[in-house]
Specification:
Layout lengths: L1 H40 L8 H20 L17 H22 L2
Length: 110
């Protein structure tokens, strides 16, 4: 019986990892499209600059916060150590993401 429980847990973990990758890829691409649209509207070119990296990192920080605070509780894996991020860490990551998204705007001012 232990082998079946271990097998089931392994399948749940693999399904959750696939879910995480798909969430980050799909939502990451959609959010990056929106950010690029805003940058293009403001005539900021981030192609081949660090601005693109900063925006990408900011989006992944936001997706990480979203996953840890909401999406992990609706997935396949139901582990004993699932918990939300502490409020202070959530604020730091969200404010840092906003700063990273605004930074290309500040760097483009001459």
């Amino acid at each position: 019986m232990k082998v079946r429980g271990l097998w089931l847990t392994t399948i749940k973990v693999l399904l959750e990892l696939i879910r995480i990758v798909l969430i980050f890829l799909i939502f990451g691409c959609l959010l990056w499209g929106g950010v690029r649209l805003i940058y293009t509207t403001l005539r900021i070119n981030v192609d081949g600059t660090y601005g693109g990296w900063l925006g990408g990192i900011a989006i992944y920080f936001l997706l990480f916060v979203l996953y840890r605070n909401k999406l992990q509780f609706s997935g396949f894996y139901d582990g004993p150590k699932q918990q939300k991020l502490p409020r202070k860490i959530t604020y730091i990551l969200v404010i840092g993401s906003i700063f990273l998204l605004i930074l290309p705007l500040l760097l483009s001012i001459k």
